[in-house]
Fold:
Amino acid sequence: MKELKAIKIGHNHYQVDMRGWMCPYPKYAIEILLEKLPSASRMDLLVDCPAATKDVPEVVKSRGCNIQEVVPINDGEWRIRVSK
Structure:
């Protein structure tokens, strides 16, 4: 299994590439990632699993965080932007 790495791409802005991770892994990984995400930060989660576009936002909202957007970035790939 690949290692999850959050890359800092700006001030209080991180990116985690989970393309190639099949569901339900993104759904469970976001729980851990949200715990590590500093307050007043945002994170872009890159996924290629269609179910993650529904599952991840549900988990994010249940943890009291926000989904800023879920947008396609390539054919069969999405960016889920989360803010804490």
Remarks:
- Strands lie at 6-10, 13-17, 42-47, 66-74, 77-83.
